Batch of 2 targets.
Target 1
Amino acid sequence: MSAAATNGNTLKVRYFDIDENPPKNYLNAESGLKSWLFTVDHKRIGLMYLASIALFFFVGGVLALVLRTELFTPAENLMNAETYNRIFTLHGAIMVFLFIIPSIPAALGNFLLPIMLGAKDVAFPRLNLASFWIYSIGALFTLASLAVNPIDTGWTFYTPYSVQTGSAVILMTFGVFIMGFSSILTGMNFIVTVHKMRAPGMTWGRLPLFIWAMYATSVIQVLATPVLAITLALLIMERTLGIGIFDPALGGDPVLYQHFFWFYSHPAVYIMIVPAFGVISELIGTFSRKTVFGYWAIAMSSLAIAFIGSLVWGHHMFVSGQSELSTVVFSFLTFFVGIPTGIKIFNWLATMHKGSIDMKTPMLYACIFLFLFTIGGVTGIMLGAISVNVQLHDTYYVVAHFHYVMMGGTVMAFLGGLHFWWPKMTGKMYSEFWGRISAVIIFIGFNLTFLPQFIMGSQGMPRRYYSYIEQFQTMHQLSTIGSYVLGIGFVIIAVYLAHSLWKGEKATSNPWGARTLDWMTSSPPLQHNFNYQPVVTNGAYDYHKPISDFTLGISDDVYHGNDHEGDIRKQSAETV
Amino acid sequence: MSAHHIIPLKTLLSTTFALVVLTVVTVAVFYLNIPAPFDVVVALLLASFKATLVAMFFMGLYYDEKFNTVVLVFSLLFFLVFVGITLLDTNFRDAGINVWIP
Amino acid sequence: MAQAQSLENAHVQHHFRSSDQQFSSSKLGMWLFLFTEVMFFGGLFVAYIIYRAWNPELFTMAATELSTVLGGINTVVLIGSSLTCALAIRAAQTNNQKMIVNYLLVTIVLATVFLVIKYFEYTAKFEVGILPGGMYTFEGIDHPKASVFFSIYYMMTGLHGIHVIIGIGLMIWLVVKARAGAYSSAYYTPVEITGLYWHLVDIIWIFLFPLMYLID
C-alpha cells in the first residue's frame, strides 16, 4: 500500500502487475455475431467503425484510381463527362462523410478514449452503439443514391444546381443528414466522458494530448454539425416544396447556401485534422522517449484551432460574390489559424530535438505527416490571401492543397495511429519490415500524385474537368502513375496487417514503452479495460519515471465492495 | 449535492407569473408602435429576459454546476458569430470596394 | 445496511462510480444536446434575420396575416406547460409518485392544446393559399418575395411543432414508466432531462412569437 496525493486528497493505492495473458479479453469474452452487432463495449464499437471506414476508404480509393485513369489522356478513356462528374462527386462525398470524418474520432477515438482516461467505458455506451447504427443507416442511404441515380453536384451540393439536377440529391443529402447525428452523438459522448469519467488523479493537466485533441474535435462536432443538418434539411425542402430560401429562381440567395454549408464544412476540416494532431503528439512523444515539449501549448492550440476555425468559413467563397468587406475579414481571420497550427509543429520538433528517436513504422508516418502536412498547411495560408486565391480558385492547386492536408495529414496520422495501436487492438505484431517499406512507397506515391497537381494548378488547370489541353498531359500522367504507386502501398498494408492477424507474433502489453494508460492493460485489453480502478499520479509523458509508477490503482473489490464503499466513493468524487 | 436542488414552489410560481406578465408586456409594446429598429430591440430584450428566467429557474441553471451554464452561453456565442459574420456579407453586398473605406 | 445501499443504487450502470456521477453526466449530455438544438434552430434564425434585413417592409406586411391573439395564447400555454413540467420534476424529487404522473399528464394536455391551436392557424392559412414555397397562391401581399416569408414561417414553426410532438412522445413514455414507480428522489434522471428539453422548446417559442407575430 502506498499513498498518493491527488488534488490534495489522499487515496490508498497499490501497484498492480499487468496481466500479460489474461484468459478473457474483449475479443473473446463473448462470441457470436450478436455480441458484436449489439455490443455496448466502446472497443468493439471502435473496431466496427474501423472495419466500416476501411471498406469506404477502399471504395473511395478505387473511385480515385478510376478518375486518375480517365485523366491519363485528354481523350475519353473510360467514361464520358457526365459519368466523370458523378464519380468525382462520389469520391469526395464518400471520402469526406463516410471515411475521414469518422476515421480517427470514431474508430481510434472510441477504442482509446475511455482506456486513456482510466474509465470502463464512455459515459453513454448505448448511445455510442446507436451512433454506430445511425452511421450505418446514413451510409445505406448514401449507397442507395448510388444505385438510383448517382449525384453529379460535387460533394458540396451547391444550389441552384443541386435543386435542378435530376440525380438523387435527396437520398444522398438525407444520408449525410443522418450521419451528422452519428457525429453529434459521438461528440457529445466524448465531451461528457472527458468531463465526468476521468480516473481519480487524472487531472486536466495529465490528460494525454490525444484526449485534448479529441475533446477539441468533439466541441466542433457538437457546434457545427447541427448547422449542416439544417442546411441539408432546407436543401431537401427546396427540392420538394420549392421554399425559395436558396434558389434564386424563387427569390432565394445561393450564396446564403454557401454560408450555411461552409459554416459546418470548414470546421469539419478541423474535425478531420485535429484528431490527427492528437495521434501525432502521442507518436512523437513515445518514439522520442521524451516528455512532450510544450504540453499546454499543444493542448490549448487544439482548442484555439477549434475556435478560430469556426470564424473563417468564407475563405471558400472569395469568388462567390460575397461582399468585399466580408472577403477581407475572412482572409484576415484565416491567417490566424496558422498560429496555433505552427505552435503545434514547432512543439513537436522541439520534442524530437535531442530525443532518442526510434524510427519504428508509426514514427515514420509521424515524420511523413510533419513533412506533408507542413506543405499542405503553408499552401493553405497562401490560398487564404485574397489575391492569390482569386488566381488559384477552383484549380488543381486547391485540389493538391487539401489532399496534402487531408491525405498527407489525416490519413498519414491515421496510418501511424493504426500501426501504433494495432498491437493493442488485435494483440498481434505486424511485420516491421513491410511496415517501413509500405510507408516509403506511400510517401513516394503521394508526392508523385499531388506535387504535379500543384504545378498544374498554378498554371491554370481547373479542377473537376474530365479533359485538359495537351500542355498538361505529362503532369497528369505523372500524377496518375503516382496514384497507382499509392494504391500499391495501401495493398501492401492491407496484406501484412491481415497476415499479422493469423500469423503475427503475440504483442506484449506495452511494445513501445509508452506511459499512457492504454498501455497499462493487456493487449488486447480486458473486457472492462482494467481489473482495478487506475489512479493517476504522473503526467502522460513522464518517460523519466519507471512504468510501474503508472499502474497504480485501487482494487475493484475495495472500490465497489461493501467495506469501504462510502468513504472511498466520497474521496474519489472529490478528486474527479 | 447542488445538482439535486429542489427548487422552491414559490420560485416556480413567481417565475411563471413573471413570464406571463412579460408576455403581456411584449404584446402591449407591439401596439405602442415603437419606431424601427427599436421595436425589434425591445422585443428581443424582453424575449431574452424571459428565456433567461426559464433557463435559470425552470431549467435550474441557477442552482446547477456552472459548466452547464458555460455550455449554454457558448451555444449563444457561436450563434451570434454565425449571424454576425454572415451579415458582414449580406448587408454589405452593394457597398462596393470603393465605398467601404477602412 | 449494505444491501439497502445496493438496492438504492440499482439504477447505476456498472461503468459509473456513483449515482451522482451518472446523474451529472446525463445532465451535461443533455445540455450539450441542447447546444446542438440552439445551433439547429440557429440556422433558421440566421435565414430569418438576413431576409428581414433585406426586406423589412415584407416582414411588416406579412406578419399582419398572422393572428397575434392565437400566438399570444400559445405562448401562455407553453409557459404553463413548462411550469407543470418543472412541478413534475419537483414531485419526483419529493417522492410524490402520484403527482409525477398528474403533472406530466397536464403538460401533455397543454402541449396538445398548443398543437391544436397551431393546426387551426395552419389550416386557415392553407385555405387562402398561403402555402410554403412553390405552392404559394395568396395575392393579399403585394411583394415579390412574399412566399419566402411564409416559407421561413412554416420551416421555423413546423420544426418547432415537430419538437413539440417529440416532447409529447417522450412524456407519454415517462408517464408509463412513472406509473410503474420507476422514478423517485433517488433516480429521476429521465424526467429531469426531458424537462430540460421541454423548457428549450418553450424558450424557442418565446423568441418565435415576437419575431413572427409582432412586427410593426
Target 2
Amino acid sequence: MKTHTCSVSFTLNGEKKTFATRPDEKLLDLLRREGYKGTKYGCGQGTCGACTVIMDGRAVYACLLYAMQAEGRKVRTIESMGTYDKPAPIQQELVAAGAVQCGYCIPGIIMSATALMEAEKDISDETAKEYMDGNLCRCTGYEKIWVALRKTLDRAAAEPKKKASAKGGKK
Amino acid sequence: MKLCEFIRPESLAQARASLRKLGPKGMPLAGGTALHFMPGKTPVSAVDVTRLGLSYIRQKGNYFEIGAATPLSDIQRYRGPRWAMHEICRRISTHQIRNVSTIGGNICRVFPWADLPVVLLAMDAKMVIYSGKTKEMGADEYFSSQPARLFRGGDLLAAVKIPVLKAHHGFGSVKAARNAAAFSMVTIAALLELDGGVIKSARVAAGSAIPFPKRLRAVEAALVGKAPAAETFRAAASLANNDAKWCKQEGMSAEYVANLAEVSIVDALERAAEFARGRTA
Amino acid sequence: MKRHELAKNLKQVNTSVTKIDAMQLALGKDSYVADFLPKDALVIKMLWSPHAHARIKKMDVSKAEKMPGVKCVLWHGNVPRIVHCTAGQGFPEPSPYDTFMFDNKVRFVGDRVAAVAAETEEQALAALEAIKVEYEVLKPVFTLDEAMAPGAPVIHDEPEAHVPIPIVYEPKKNLVAHVACEAGSFKKGMAEADFTFDEMYETPYAQHCPIEPYTSMAQMTPAGRILITTSTQVPFHCRRIVARTLGIPVQKIRVVKPRIGGGFGCKQEILLEDVTAMFALRTGRPCLWRFDREETFRTGRTRHPFRIRLRTGVKKDGTITAIGLECINNTGAYGGHGLTVVSCSGGKTLPLYHCDNILFDGKSYYTNLPVGGAYRGFGATQAFFAIESLMDHMAEAIGMDPMKFRQINHIRPGEGSPIFQALGEGREGLPMTVGSNALAECIVQGAEAAGWEGRQDWRKKTGRYRRGIGMCCLMQGSSIPDIDMGAATIKINEDGSFNLNVGATDLGTGSDTVLAQIAAEELETTTDKMIVYSSDTDMTPFDVGAYASSTTYLSGEAVRKAAADAKRQILATGAEMLGLKVEEVHCEDAHVLNADGSKKVSYSDIANYSLYQKNQYQIIGTASHITKKSPPPFAAHFAEVEVDTLTGFVKVLNYVSTIDCGTAVNPTLCEGQTEGGTLNGISYALTEQYLFDEKGKMQNASFADYHIYSMRDRPPIKAILVPSYEDTGPFGAKSVSEICINGPAPAIGNAIYNATGARLNEFPFTPEKVLAAIKAVKK
C-alpha cells in the first residue's frame, strides 16, 4: 500500500542493507517498519531522544532525519547492542542500578551513552551530561541512570585495553 | 516541509547548478533540523550539502574557517587558541541536534531564537558565499535582514570565518533560557577590544527577544573610551532599549525581558572583560 | 525487635532484586503497544476542534470517505450517542457522564470532531483536511470566575449529562462537584488564635509527559471479538467503558496491557480505546491510534489547576487552632476526576497536623480548557503547596523554626483524624487511625542530609546570588478503602516455578517485580521463580488498576493471600508425600520439610507429584483483597536553592526526599519512584506550564517549549527511605509512588523565601514572578 519511490543503502548494525523508501520518510519510520522496533517514537519533534540511533559514531534523532540522509552512512540501533547472554556493559549497569523503570527512554539512553564512550576519553561529569541532555526520562529523575552511566564510564576508563578488544570483536 | 526528491550533488558547483535549476522548489539540506520548523505542503527537492567537504574547522592566519556544513557539536568540541565559539554551541538545543544541525543551517535562514547569528555579529565574522566563485560578506551586511535573500539564485554558504581573538580582545556570550536545552529567551554576545585599560572598540549583539538579531549600537558607543568596569557595563546596558524593542517570551512580559536583557548584557560584558584578562576556556 | 525492624529477616521482600523486565527493555525487545503492530494495520488520525466552545452546525465527511486509502470515517452522525465518563475509576464512577464518542458540540481546543482510519498516515491526514465542518462559535469560559459567574455560558447543556451516584452536580452552573465538611468549629478556632492568616494560592496546569505517548491498537480476533492492546493503567475499567460506549457486551472485548512507557495518571483514562475499537469493528482491520506529542499535551489529560483559599489560626506556643481549606479546581471541558481530586486535596492533606477545628470546602468547575485528570499526587500536590507554604509563614509569625513547628504538630502513630472519615472519594471515607508513621525520623534524617542546622534568616543574606533552604512535610494514602479491589492467582509448574497472574497494572513502576517478591516471600521461594503476567482481561483476575497508590498495598496483599492459599496446598501435598501431618511440616527454601529438616521434598517434586502422580490436581492459589484503611506514607522534603536576585532565575542545588513507605518491598525501586517523582515535582514547580492564546489554544505543546528536566538540568536528589512497618500491608508495606511529587513546589517556595524574603503564592516560579516578588520584599 505504501508507495516507495526511491531507495537508500546504508550499513545497519554492521550489515549493508538497501531499503525502498520515499524522500520524505523519516529514518525512524523506516527502521520500525523494517523490524528495528527497539528505536522508539516519543515526540517526533527531535526533543525526547527515545528514537536515538548512532550514525557515523554520533547520536542522532531518527525521528528528525530523513531516511535518505543515511545513504552510505553507518547506522547502529539498540538491536546491535547486546543480548540476554551478552548484554553491553551499559545495559548491564542500567539494569543493575534499577535505572530501567518504564524503559521507554532506555534504548535511546544506551545509544547516547555508547556514542559518548566511543567519542571521548577521560569523560568528566560535565561532558557526560552534555552528551546525555537530549534523552528525556520522566520516571527516574536520572539518578539511577547517572549512577549506571558513571560506573560504566569509570570501568571503561580503568580497562582501556579490554574495551578496545571487545569493540573490535563487535560489528 | 515535504520532500519529493533527494539530490546528492558531488561538488559545490553541482549543488549550485541543481538549486539554480530547481528555483523555489529546491532546498539545500544539511542536518535537516530546520525543515521541522518550516511548514508548507508544497513539495520541495532536497539538495544534500553534507557530502561536499564542507565540514571542517581550520585556523588560517587570523581566522578560523568553519565549513558551512560543520555540525555544532564539532564547534563545541573544537579547541583553538582563544577559541570562544564552544561557549554558545554547548548551549544550543540537545546533543543529538548539535550532532546534525550545522552552522550554515543556523544562519542561512535565521529563526528568531537563533543564537549563532548573535555571536557572529559580535565576532564580526565573515560569511563565505559561493556563487560560482567565492565572495566574503561581513556579518553586519549579512545579518542586515533575513539571509535567505542571498541564496535564492542557488548560491550557497560555503564557510564562516571567525577572527582569531588577540590578547587584548575579550569575548563573552550569555544565553538566558529556562533550562539547558531550551530555546533562548535572550541571547547576548559581546566583543571588547581593550587598549591600555580602556575599551577601544566594542561589538554587542542581541537576539531571541527581538524580532531579528542585531547589534546594540548605543550600548557599544557608551563603552568606547571607558574602563572595562562594572559601572561602565551597567550604564551601557541601560541604553539597550535604544536599539531593541524587547518582546514578551514564554508568558513573561516585555518589561521583564527588557530587564533580563539588560542584566544579560552586563553579564556578557563581564565575561568578555574576564576573557580579556586571560580566561581562555 | 523494634517495629520498624520487622522486615529485617525477610528474604525476598525488603531486597533490591533486579526488576524482572529490565533487561528485556534495555535490549529493546518488542514490549510496548506499537511494537506489536501488524503489517496490515490502519492508521487513525483525529480532526480536533480548533474552537474552545462551539456547536457543529454542519458536517460533511463524504469527500473524505472517498479519498485514497481511507477505510472509515467516524463522526457524531454515524456512531452511537452513549453518554459515558472517560475516567478509569471504580463503578459507578464518582464522576459525571458528560462525554460521547463524538458529539455535535466541542468544548475545548483539542476536542474530538471526526476520525479517519486509512492505510497510511499521509492518507489519513489528507482525509481530515477534506472534512467540512461548519461551527457556530459559542462564548468560551476560560477562568474559574467566568465559569462561576451568574449567566455563564453552559458548557454541558446536553440533557444526558448526569452523575451515576447521588452527589452534587449542577452542569447548568458549570459546577461539577461540591464537597464540604467541618470538624470542631472553624470559627471558634480562629477566635482562639493569637495570629490568623488568610491567603490565596494558585497552582498550574501540567501534563504527565510519559515518554511513550497515548497509544492504542484494536483488532478483530478470529472468534469475532475485539482485542484491544493499549497503553493503559486501567485495563478492566477500559473494557467496561469501551463496552458501554460502543453498546456491546463486555464479553466481546479483551484488553491487553503490554509494557507501558509511563503513565503517572494520564493513562487512567479511556481516551483512545473507544475509537480504535469502533474502527476495528467497522473495518475488520487492525487499527492503531497513537497521539503525537502535541496531541498528548492538548488533548491528553492534565493536572487540575487549583485556586485555594487557606485560612489558619495559630497560638504563640505553636498550637494550630483552626484550618480552613477552600479548594476550587478547574476540571476543564469534561468532569472526570473533578470531585475525587478536590476531595483528596483535603482528605490526603488535612490529617497531617493536629488541629481541632478544620473546615474544608471543595468545588470543581467546568471551563473550555484542557481536561483535568488523574495525576500523581491527585489534589494533594495542589493543596500541600498552600498548606506547607503557610506552615512556614505561621512559624515565622510565632518566631519558631519552621521545622520545629512541624515537629510539634504532625500526626503521631496511633492517632486518627476526623478528616479520614469525612472525606472519601465520592462518598464518606472510613474512620482510621494511623498505624505506621516514621515522619519524625524522616524530618530528622532529612534535616541532617540537607544541612538544616546551618540555615540562616534571609535578612542576613546579601549579594546577587542568594541561597536558601526550605522544607515541607507530606502524606498521601495507599489505595481507596472499601472501593478498590485487587486479585491474583498463582499456580505451580513442574520445575517449582510459579505463574503469578495479577490484574494489577505495571505501568513502568516495577509493580510486577514487587508483586513477585511478595509472592516469593510468602511461598518461601525466590523471586526468579515467578513468571508474572499482569492485566489481561481474558487471562488474569480483576484489579481496579494502577492508581491511588494502591498496587503494592492492595494488590500486593491480594498476591500475598493468593500465595498463602497456594502454600497451604503445597504444604498439604508435601506432607502427604512425606507421610507426615500438615502440622508437622513447614516451607523453607522452596522445600517442604519437617521440624528438624530430616525429611524434605522440593517444590518441584511436589509439583510433579500433584500434576502427574497421585491425587492429581493443580496447586493454584487465588485471592482478592479490599482494604479498610488507606495508610498514609509520610515524607519530609528539603530543597536548597540559589536565586539570582537580578533575573529571578532559581536553581535547585540539592534536594533531599525522605520517605516512610513502610517496608520498602524493593528499596531500589522505592528510591527510583521517589527520585523520579521528586524531579517531576521540581520541574513542575519551576519550568512546566501551559501557555494559552486568547482562543484557549495551548501555545507550547512540545518538549522544546514545555520544559521538563534533562540530565543536565537535574539537581542531585538524595532519596532516603525511612523504615516503618504497616501492619495492614503486605509484609509491612504501604504506598510509595505518589507522595514524592507533592514536595518540591512548597519546599522550593520556602527555600526561595529563605534565600530572599520573597513569598510566592503561585507557581511555576517563573523568573518574572520571582523577580517581582523579590522587588516587593520589605526589609
